[in-house]
Write a structure and sequence with these properties.
Elements: H1 2-5, H2 18-46, H3 51-69
Amino acid sequence: LYFLLTGGVGPDGRPAYMRFWSPFGASNQLLAAMTLIGVTVWLWRTRGAWWVWLVTGLPAVLMYVMSGWA
C-alpha cells in the first residue's frame, strides 16, 4: 500500500522499495545466522563430532560478521 500511495518513488528520488531493503536484508541474515547457531548446538550435542564447527559453526560466525559489517 505504501508503494502505491507514494507512486513508487521515495522522497529522495530512489525507488520506494529501497527504503525497506536494507533492514529486510539485515534481519534475514541475522535470522539465518541464529538458525545456524541452533543447528550447530543441536549437532554438537547429538553427534559430538569436530566437523560440526566447520560445517555449521564457521558459516554462522561469518554470517554474523557480514551482517554486522553491512
